[in-house]
Design a protein that fits this description.
This protein is α/β, with parallel strands linked by helices. 36% of the residues lie in helices and 25% in strands. Among the domains are: 117 residues, Rossmann fold, CATH 3.40.50; 160 residues, no CATH class; 88 residues, Translation Initiation Factor IF3 (2-Layer Sandwich), CATH 3.30.110.
Length: 663
């Protein structure tokens, strides 16, 4: 009996499911903790648990979804990279969030680039590039290359990439390979983020493929793209940016499969993020502006998902002010209860000492974990000092950061994914309240008792005990989830009522939810049900449904919906291109290999269509599709001149799709 194996690796858990080959029922499912830095432990544990119920020889396809790329962008993590910026002005580095995405990483600015028509503006200075590469700092994990109008002529990006690979051996991301759209700085941003993620996604794919080999599984490994389509593992290695919103896209497919709902808001709460998408007539919308994750708007096609840094493992902040109050996220912490499961003696010793102190030191109740297998290189002196203290394993924060100037050094290590902070999270609150019992409840009790001693602007403790503190944290999860759902609902409503974020928090909205009855009697509810997904959805989402006055659907297997969605998708390879007209009787087909000039418009369109069809078909066959369905979308822009149509531009989009072959 052939079966399908779906895997989803998130920030906290790695899930695995076995479906029958007809995709009609779940045969087995399991969850294991995601292990860092070596992802193989969590991947292997989840796979072994489900393979205990079927024969590994029966696995006909393996498909993987993940939130790791999404989480990394939301939390500002990823490897250090360099950007090679060709033919742009220095001021263009400040556009589209590119400076923020670089986070101080090196930029090599070169002459070169092409015009809108694909003609070379200036020669590429490869000599200057070689000298700049030799001066790059150690510890880089990838290089991004972006050239002016590279989507109209990729020649300079390809030449630069060849030299970079030869000189450094580092993975190289060319912006034209990620999007055919114009907008150089935004393409550069997308390339930078892709370069940051290469190491992270490669480690995950390596872990899955290694365990497949160990268990004797020879089936093809597919990866879920951000638009819900499946791609081969090799392509995912090259373009990990396409896996942002992979997990959420898989969750949408899983939600439809599990519930049969055609119209609903699907809300998936994980350890790091809450991802919300509108399901209309059983299908999610694709974001026409490109996937937005955290502060970044990329050029990656993905489901129209809205992502917030709110999850079961979100950092708990005390809001400044007289009354205090709480705020959750966007950074993920390791729950204290989870750390204590493996480091119990150290965690309890530190918590007991802090609780016994009349005035606990700043940072009490927090811990730091190293996430490297070997001491990282390329650290500055302060980063090196902090890292050296972590060389023997996790420690209380106060033992790691011994002065204020070392705090930023630790944050840089965290940002690069080399270290992680543990502290109070909603998961700890759930343990205190008996809503979860997976880890060390005693440590959670102590951590929340310590957190409750924090004082608001009036000088009062924010809570009398751990249980009261826990209830306040869970209530804050409800409040922020309601805000996220309302914001998504207002954005998708179709009626222009104002800024969705403002409307979600408007006093009239609050009055409607509160059931206010005065001279004005506002009412507010959602017009569609909410499908709650994620392991912690049953813990938090009942109260969310009651607050919104809407039907809350919490399906069986909601905790592994992403892994289910990973195996019910299809391959869809898209190739896009443009035909432009630089003058009367002249047409340029911008092919994947470079521009080609013709004198006939129809000939140019046919040439481009054939090239794109071949490109999409080859990639679909490489992904295992035998029965390929081709769709062609053509958008021609013309203007009327003296009563006649004048051709300006044509954009073609070829999609080759189908179900991957089952082994």
């Amino acid at each position: 009996m052939s079966v399908l194996l779906g895997i989803d690796t998130g920030g906290t858990y790695t899930d695995a499911v076995i479906l029958d080959a007809s995709e009609s029922r779940v045969i087995a499912w399991a969850k294991a903790l995601t292990t860092r830095p070596d992802l193989a432990g969590g991947v292997g544990a989840a796979m072994d648990a489900v393979l205990a119920q079927v024969s590994a020889a029966d696995v006909a396809m393996v498909s993987l979804s993940t939130t790791l790329a999404t989480n990394a962008l939301v939390e500002g993590q990823g490897g250090r990279v360099a950007l090679v910026f060709i033919g742009f002005e220095a001021a263009e580095l400040t556009r589209d969030g590119l400076t923020e995405a670089l986070r101080g990483d090196p930029v090599i600015t070169l002459t070169g680039g092409h015009s809108h028509a694909g003609a070379e503006i200036a020669p590429l200075d490869l000599t200057a590039l070689g000298s700049a590469l030799a001066a790059l700092p150690p510890g880089l994990t990838g290089v991004a290359v972006a050239a002016r109008f590279a989507t109209r002529n990729p020649g300079h990006e390809l030449a630069a990439a060849a030299l970079i690979r030869a000189a450094t051996g580092l993975p190289v991301t060319c912006s034209h390979e990620l999007s055919s759209a114009l907008g150089g700085p935004k393409r550069a941003l997308t390339a930078v983020l892709n370069a940051r993620l290469i190491g992270l996604i490669a480690r995950l794919i390596d872990a899955v493929q290694a365990h497949m080999a160990l268990r004797g599984i020879t089936a093809r490994l597919m990866v879920v793209r951000g638009d819900g389509a499946l791609i081969g593992a090799a392509l995912a290695r090259e373009k990990p940016i396409e896996t942002i919103l992979s997990g959420p896209a898989a969750s949408i497919a899983g939600a439809g499969w599990l519930t049969g709902e055609r119209d609903a808001l699907v809300s998936d709460i994980g350890g790091t993020t809450t991802d919300i998408c509108l399901l209309r007539d059983g299908r999610p919308q694709i974001d026409p502006q490109g996937a937005r994750v955290g502060p970044y708007r990329t050029m990656v096609e993905a489901v129209a998902m809205r992502t917030w840094g709110l999850g079961g493992d979100s950092e708990v902040h005390l809001v400044e002010g007289l009354e205090g109050g709480l705020r959750l996220g966007p950074r993920r912490l390791m729950p204290v209860a989870l750390l204590a499961r493996d480091q119990g003696a150290m965690v309890h010793r530190a918590l007991d000492a802090a609780l016994a102190a009349e005035a606990p030191p700043e940072g009490a109740g927090r811990f730091v974990l190293p996430l490297w297998s070997e001491m990282p290189c390329g650290l500055d002196p302060r980063e090196g000092a902090v890292a050296a203290r972590l060389s023997d394993g996790p420690l209380p924060l106060g033992d790691v950061v011994r002065s204020r100037v070392e705090g930023p050094a630790l944050q840089r290590l965290v940002g690069r994914g080399l270290a992680m902070v543990a502290g109070v999270t909603p998961s700890d609150a759930a343990h205190v309240l008996g809503l979860s019992d997976a880890w060390d409840r005693s440590a959670a009790d102590k951590a929340l008792a310590l957190f409750a001693r924090k004082r608001n602007g009036r000088g009062d403790r924010i809570a009398p005990d751990a249980a009261t503190m826990a209830r306040a944290i869970v209530e804050q999860v409800t409040a922020q989830t309601v805000d996220c759902l309302l914001e998504a609902a207002f954005a998708e409503d179709g009626r222009a009522m104002g800024d969705p974020a403002t409307l979600a928090r408007h006093p009239l909205t609050r009055a409607g939810l509160d059931g206010h009855r005065g001279v004005v009697v506002p009412t507010l509810t959602l017009g569609v049900p909410v499908v709650g997904l994620g392991a912690s959805a049953p813990t938090y989402y009942g109260a969310v449904g009651r607050r919104l006055g809407t039907r809350m659907v919490l399906p069986a297997h909601a905790g592994v919906a992403n892994a289910i969605g990973a195996v019910v998708g299809q391959v869809a390879m898209v190739a896009t291109g443009t035909v432009t007209s630089p003058g009367p009787g002249a047409y340029v087909a911008h092919l994947p290999t470079g521009p080609q000039r013709l004198t006939d418009r129809d000939a140019a369109l046919t040439l481009l269509r054939d090239a794109l069809t071949a490109d999409a078909t080859i990639r679909a066959r490489a992904a295992g599709v035998e029965d390929i369905r081709l769709t062609v979308a053509q958008d021609v822009t013309e203007v009327a001149v003296a009563g006649s149509a004048m051709f300006i531009e044509a954009r073609l989009r070829i999609t080759a799709q189908g179900r991957p072959r089952i082994a």
